[in-house]
Amino acid sequence: MKKNFILITFSILAGILVTFFILNKESFAASEEYLAYAFLTTSVDNVMEAENEISRLGLGIYLNNGNKFDICIAIYKDLDIVNEMINQYEKNGTNIYLKTIKVSKNFYKSLDTYENIIKNTNDKQLTTKINESILKMYLESDQND
After folding, report:
1. In what helix (H) or strand (E) does residue 32 lie, and over which residues does it extend?
2. Torsion sign, CA atoms 26, 35, 135, 80
3. Can you say how many angstroms the Cα of residue 62 is from the centroid of all Cα atoms in its chain?
4. pTM metric for this prediction
5. Using CA atoms in the order 82, 112, 53, 59, what is the torsion angle rounded to 10 degrees?
6. Are the C-beta atoms of 71 and 4 separated by less than 8 Å?
7. Would you say residue 28 has pLDDT above 80?
8. 29 or 79, which is more confident
9. What confidence score (pLDDT) does residue 32 get?
10. Chain centre distance of CA 143
11. Nearest CA-CA partner of 62 in 83, 78, 40, 81
12. In 3D, which of 33, 26, 42 has the Cα closest to residue 107?
């Protein structure tokens, strides 16, 4: 009888420990965040103003920020690229500010491919096309995730 009690107690404790481990592992995976840096130029009050500003700039998307719409002209995660792009925008006289945004896992991983190309080129036109592709990809991933 004493052996059965010890065996049952041990089994219950082992079950609790395994359950605790599995639940913690799942909650850790669920809480994993993927962050990137959005390059913002301004905030406007409505969608019409946002679309006009994007049209004026010739590039960008708008991010809903509660009661404002932030105009985003680039999104990157690699700090070397972020710093390089800050320098380029400053040289061009474009005022930007950075905002950390949550992105989907797929978008985050896809940035690697684009950022590797940017790191290995000095072609400004190619960088602009890649930036446009990144913004488009963000909109598509934002709508599907």
Report:
1. none
2. negative
3. 15
4. 0.75
5. 110
6. no
7. no
8. 79
9. 82
10. 13
11. 40
12. 33
Question: Can you give the length of the chain in residues?
Answer: 145
Residue type, 103: V
Strand-pairing partners, residue 42, are: 71
**Per-residue burial over 120-145, b = 16 or more CB atoms within 10 Å of its CB, e = otherwise:** eeeeeeebeebbbebbebbeebeeee
pLDDT tens digits for range 97-144: 999 999 999 999 999 999 999 999 999 899 999 999 999 999 998 554
Q: Which residue has the tokens 């946002």?
A: 50
Measured between alpha carbons, how far is 9 from 136 in angstroms, rounded to an integer? Answer: 57
Cα dihedral 25, 100, 136, 44 in deg (nearest 10):
140
Domain positions in the chain: 1-32, 35-144
Domain 35-144 has CATH 1.10.1040.10: no
Tokens of 31: 């809480």
Distance between CA 53 and CA 35 in Å, rounded?
Answer: 25
